[in-house]
Amino acid sequence: MAFFTIMLPSILQEKKLKLPREFAGQQGGKLTGRAQLSLPNGRVWDVGVLKGPAVGEFWFDDGWSRFVEENSVSEYWFMSFVYAGASSFKVKIFDLTTCEIDYPSGGFDNDGVEEDDSPSVQILDSPPNPPTQQTPQFTAVEDGDEDDSVQFLCSSQPLKKKKNNASDSDGDQDLGEMLVKELKRREIFLGSKLSRKLHGWSMEIKMAVKEALAIKCGNLPSFLVVMQRHNNNPHRMFVPLEFCKEHMMNAKSVKLKLSRGGKDSMWDVEMRFMDQGGPRLSGKGFTKFYRDNELKVGDVCLFQMLRKVNVVLQVSICVC
C-alpha cells in the first residue's frame, strides 16, 4: 500500500508526520516502535513511530525532523511512501515543480544504514548517465477529518529532468491542470473562469489551492473562491452558479462559520441571485466577514456546507 503526503507548514512546524488514517487502519497494527525510510540514493533513515491516543492514530516523530532537514524538504513539497512490510517504507521526494529531487549523497548515518544489494562496489572513471526521473500521477483518496496529511494512490511515468526555466514553467502549468482536475474529481465547485485561469496563476496561489484540498472534509458539498482583483470586493463575493443550483437555490441568507484557535466565529450574510453576474454573498454581514478576516488578492476561500436548511457554510481561508 502507498500514500502520498503534501508537506504543509503545520507538518514542518510540528516536526512530526501523522500517517493517513486509511493507511494506519490497515497497516498500523503491523508497525513497530521504529520504522525505516529508504531513499533512492540508498540511504536508510530510522524514525520513531508514535501511537496516538485515538484509534488508528500513528505518527513519525523521533528522527523525522532530521530526515526532513537533511533532505532540505520545503513547504508544499510532496513525498510518496510505499510500504514494503516490516515497518519499512520506500520514500521519494518531489519539489514544487513535481519533479523528483536530486538526493544528497548516500552513506552511513547514525540513525540508519546504507542499503547495498551487491557484494562489491565498482568505481568508475566517469559517472554513469543519471536515471530518468519519475513523477507521480495522483488519484486522491478521502481521508479522516482530523488528518493533516493528504493521501494519494500513486503510479509513475518517466519524466525528463528539468534543465531550464522553460521546463519549470511547464511543471507549473502541469500543477495547475492537476489541481483543476482534482478539484473537479472531488466535486469542489469552481466558477468557469476560475477553471480556465488556474494554470496561469502564481505558484503561491496554487499552493493555497493545494492547502484547501488538504482541508476538504469527506463528502460535504463545497465550492472554492480565489480572491482576484475583479472580485476582491468587501461588499460581495460571487458563488459558482452550479453549486447554487444544486444546493441552495432558495436560500435568502447563509451563516458563515470560521473556526480558528479553538474558537468559532459566525457571520449572517445575505444571498442574492442577480440576472447579471450570478449569485453572490453580500450585504453588511459579508462586508464584516471580509474585513474581520482581512481578505486580500490571492487568498483562497473554501466553503463547505454543514447544513442545507438554514444554510451554514464552514469557511477555511488559505492565505497566499
TrEMBL record:
Q: Tell me the GO molecular function terms.
A: DNA binding
Coiled-coil annotation reads none
> Which Gene3D superfamilies does the entry link to?
DNA-binding pseudobarrel domain
Q: What InterPro entries does this protein map onto?
A: B3_DNA-bd, DNA-bd_pseudobarrel_sf, Plant_B3_domain
Enumerate the Pfam families for this protein: B3 (PF02362)
Alphabetically list the UniProt keywords: DNA-binding, Nucleus, Transcription, Transcription regulation
Q: GO CC terms for this protein?
A: nucleus
Where in the numbering of this chain does the TF-B3 domain appear? 2-97, 222-320
Q: SMART domains per the record?
A: B3 (SM01019)
Tell me, in one coarse class, where this protein mainly resides.
Answer: nucleus
Question: Does the keyword Secreted belong to this entry?
Answer: no
Where are the stretches annotated Disordered? 107-142
Keyword DNA-binding in record: yes
| Location(s), subcellular | Nucleus
The highest taxon in the source lineage is Eukaryota
Official protein name in the record: TF-B3 domain-containing protein
Species per Swiss-Prot/TrEMBL record: Linum tenue
